[in-house]
TrEMBL record:
Protein's UniProt name: Extracellular solute-binding protein family 5
Transport found in the keyword field: yes
Organism: Roseiflexus castenholzii (strain DSM 13941 / HLO8)
Source species, domain of life: Bacteria
Residues covered by region (Disordered): 39-82
Length: 568
């Protein structure tokens, strides 16, 4: 957040209390529109907002996306009285988290975060419209472009009964930036951090190396900013145990089976949670999840579009639909010495992939084309018309490019996949690429191993997905070769024009200028094809009607479980 006086050209310190914070964020702060909802009426799209950094002065517009186009509204669950409390909800996860660590490698990505989301808080939080709101920090201030001062809530308790202090925040961030295992997939998001200082027991100062419009969004996103106590490493094994400040406290974790949480009665937000017990049950197979949902053994789960159709006439179940941030991708490692290190080969592959066939066959037509920035992320993404033009199938031109690169006879390659959409996409692309004489072998492996190998760059190709990001730059920083990307993914590839545009976009708060530059970066990525983007599907969640106030979050995670009610 940056506060400038445009009339006098001088910078001022502005302290934002909770009431002013909420007013400012609602009027012009960081938000994307929610793409579908569960309880009550669908939330309205936010005016000109982004998850990146709420503005507090017209003189310093941030990287805020304009209001996105909302997806068709899904059926809503019935409203429920605000005093409804108690009960148990069982939700089916598609995979095991493997580790509950709030830092470090987080090798299972989606499932790791789903598992720890109920237990940990960050300094800020997105609401269901993705407006940035206070969380562990009740306010923050910016004396200049490179300083953020967060003022913590008083009396916040960890699950072990100890009160939160600024020392815990510093310890958490230091540990996240330099985790014990030495591997930090989120390193790029902290590249501009210089020092973290404890001002007093309830005040923390973050000094940056240079201007960075992503900081509020980084803390609202919370994937890499969970806060935990300084004494956690000496008290528990964070792989299987947890001490956070979240609305649920961990009771037990049985790997590959279930995670049991109970309501944390001392949570700082008296409105969360509403249920007494939350259980995550690991059920990878959709048929088994659907059977468990129909029998009442579970209360909710994600389903494929086909699964949603199977359940749509069930009177006890509500189907919710929404865009979310998880673009599907064919990812290469570009390390030198392989055919796909040549740009023309990658371009030929992209020209041969029929994305509409993938959408129709894998997602039952329930998806949109996507570039590096997903549709629904304000006005930052490239338009569907532009993407359709860029992704026109042209096998003859692709063959010419292969011949130009010296690979008219094709080559053999191994593509790594895991279950569900990843393997389905690979099977279709495998057949499409036979037209270029490319023999793509599919290696389907367990998700935890898949995620570990992706992080380490131990693959040739893989069919994967990207998640939600705190700022538009988060969708693009891999191609700037930040974090693990330079060493593990792209040691033999770099684009100077992309680097220049990306760096310029990160050096300004001017929203229009950032958008122009970041769209230029996206076009370079599509042309260079270090990754090949396939589509962004809609998410479907199926919930029993006893569960109310659930919604599909654009963030890809499940903040709604903090807010749900049950009626029986």
């Amino acid at each position: 957040m940056n506060d400038r006086c445009s009339d006098q050209g001088e910078q001022k310190v502005r302290r934002i209390d909770r009431r002013a914070f909420l007013r400012l964020v609602a009027a012009g702060g960081g938000a994307l529109a929610l793409q579908a909802c569960g309880g009550g009426a669908p939330p309205a799209a936010a005016p000109t907002t982004a998850p990146a950094a709420p503005t507090v002065a017209p003189a310093a517009p941030t990287a805020a996306p304009a209001a996105p186009t909302a997806a068709p509204a899904a059926p809503t669950a019935a409203p429920v009285a605000s005093n409804a409390r108690g009960g148990k909800v069982t939700w089916a996860m598609l995979g095991d988290p493997v580790s509950l660590e709030p830092y470090g490698i987080n090798i299972t990505g989606q499932y790791n975060y789903e598992a720890r989301e109920p237990m940990y808080d960050s300094l800020l939080v997105w609401d269901r419209d993705l407006k940035v709101q206070p969380s562990l920090a009740e306010s923050f201030e910016t004396p200049d472009d490179t300083t953020y001062i967060f003022n913590l809530r008083s009396g916040v308790k960890f699950h072990n009964g100890r009160e939160l202090t600024a020392e815990d925040v510093k310890f958490s961030l230091d540990t996240i930036i330099n985790p014990p295992d030495g591997r930090n997939p989120g390193a790029a998001f902290f590249a501009n951090f210089d020092t973290i200082e404890v001002v007093d027991p309830l005040t923390i100062r973050i000094n940056l190396k240079k201007i960075d419009p992503t900081i509020p969004g980084l803390f609202a996103w919370s994937r890499y900013t969970n806060i935990f106590p300084t004494d956690m490493p000496s008290q528990i094994n964070p792989v299987t145990q947890a001490i956070g400040t979240g609305p649920f406290r961990l009771v037990s974790y049985t790997p590959n089976a279930e995670i049991v949480y109970e309501r944390f009665s001392d949570h700082w937000n008296p409105e969360q949670p509403n249920i007494d017990q939350l259980i995550y049950r690991v059920i990878p197979e959709e048929d088994a999840r659907i059977a468990a949902l129909r029998s009442g053994d579970i209360d909710g789960t994600d389903v494929t579009p086909l699964g949603a159709r199977r359940l749509q006439n069930d009177s006890d179940i509500t189907i919710l639909k929404g865009l979310y941030s998880q673009p599907k991708v064919l990812q290469f490692t570009l390390k030198g010495g392989k055919p796909w290190d040549i740009k023309e080969v990658r371009q030929a592959i992209s020209l041969t992939i029929d994305r509409q066939e993938l959408i129709d066959k894998v997602m039952e037509g329930e998806a949109e084309l996507t570039g590096p920035v997903v549709p629904g992320y304000g006005d930052w993404p490239l338009s569907q018309d532009e993407l359709r033009a860029a992704y026109q199938v042209d096998v003859e031109k692709a063959r010419q490019l292969m011949a130009q690169a010296g690979y008219a006879d094709g080559f053999k390659v191994t593509a790594m996949t895991f279950a569900n959409y990843s393997n389905d996409n690979a099977i279709i692309v495998q057949e499409q690429l036979r037209q270029l004489n490319i023999d793509m072998q599919i290696e389907q492996i367990e998700f935890g191993t898949f995620a570990q190998r992706v992080t380490n760059g131990e693959f040739e190709w893989c069919f994967t997905a990207r998640g939600m990001r705190a700022d538009v730059s988060g969708y693009l920083n891999d191609f700037r070769r930040l974090g693990i990307a330079e060493k593990n993914w792209f040691p033999a590839w770099e684009n100077a024009e992309l680097n220049e545009a990306y760096d310029a976009a990160m050096a300004t708060f001017d929203q229009a200028k950032r958008r122009e530059l970041m769209q230029k970066v996206q076009r370079i990525v599509i042309n260079e094809a270090p990754h090949i983007y396939l589509y962004q599907d809609y998410r479907f969640s199926a919930v029993r009607k006893r569960v109310q106030n659930y919604y599909v979050a654009f963030t890809t995670f499940r903040p709604a479980l903090r807010e749900i009610f049950v009626t029986a």
